[in-house]
Design a protein that fits this description.
Distance between the termini: 27 Å
Number of helices: 8
Number of strands: 10
Largest sheet: 7 strands, mixed
CATH superfamily of the largest domain: Spore Coat Polysaccharide Biosynthesis Protein SpsA, Chain A
Number of domains: 2
Length: 246
């Protein structure tokens, strides 16, 4: 069976090395395919030695390569995953954000056909994808970086963030596809109980879910402790997050 890649990226101080180490542990338990687990980062401190670690690559876009402050926001540095070459990596690659909880087998993410597969953004009616989880072939979409390099101001004027840019760019090429809706769910949209139920019942795992994304607040440690991060949202302590996020 072909060896595949699972890739993550960590920059700045928003997430500590424990997020990388925990993601590695979750992948190890939930992926039976032979695989390499790789982290691109600007700080290797505290990352466990069995994880392959590389510097966030330079991609020929001056603002990215100089690490201008705007590239640290809104996920833009994730675009460096499309570098060609990307060190010695080859083949099918599943990118996973650090702030997720894997609750079931992820073998299926390598079985579904498609050139670029991503979460369908939950609050968008257009083609926008949520890049918390996407699969692609290393080196296939380096043209997106070249386009951003040559049309940076024009491209940035049309989008708010990295995921709007890359999924819109690939949609125009007819290369964009989506995971089955049930596979990737939002903790605060699909797990937290609505209205007053959130005050009495803990969050649940939606049927068929494989990966739960913790975009915004709360993060997994907050959910374990019952901290919502928002005054208007009640989140009771959630034991299943502790069971899986380890």
């Amino acid at each position: 069976m072909q060896t595949v890649n699972v890739l993550c990226i960590k920059w700045g101080s928003k997430y500590g090395p424990e997020y990388v180490n925990t993601l590695r542990s979750m992948v190890r338990r939930n992926l039976t395919r032979p695989h390499r687990f790789v982290c691109l980062t600007d700080d290797r401190t505290g990352i466990e030695p069995d994880i392959e670690v590389f510097d966030i690559p330079k991609v020929g876009i001056p603002d990215f390569d100089a690490r201008k402050p705007w590239t640290f926001a809104h996920g833009w540095l994730k675009l460096t995953s499309f570098a060609d070459p990307l060190y010695d990596l080859r083949g099918p690659t599943l990118f996973i954000d650090l702030d997720v909880v894997i609750v079931d087998s992820i073998d299926c993410f390598f079985d579904l056909p498609g050139e670029f597969l991503v979460i369908k953004e939950w609050d968008k009616r257009d083609e926008t994808g949520n890049t918390s989880v996407y699969r692609y072939e290393i080196g296939r979409h380096a043209d997106a970086l070249a386009y951003l390099r040559d049309h940076q101001q024009e491209a940035l004027a049309k989008v708010r963030n990295e995921q709007e840019f890359i999924t819109g760019y690939l949609a125009r090429q007819g290369k964009l596809g989506y995971w089955p809706q049930a596979w990737c769910r939002s903790f605060k949209r699909h797990c937290v109980r609505g209205l007053l139920l959130g005050w009495f019942l803990p969050p649940r795992i939606p049927e068929g879910a494989k990966i739960i994304a913790f975009h915004g607040k709360p993060n997994p440690p907050d959910a374990i402790a019952g901290r919502s991060g928002k005054w208007y949202r009640r989140v009771l302590p959630t034991p299943w997050v502790a069971e899986h996020w380890r």
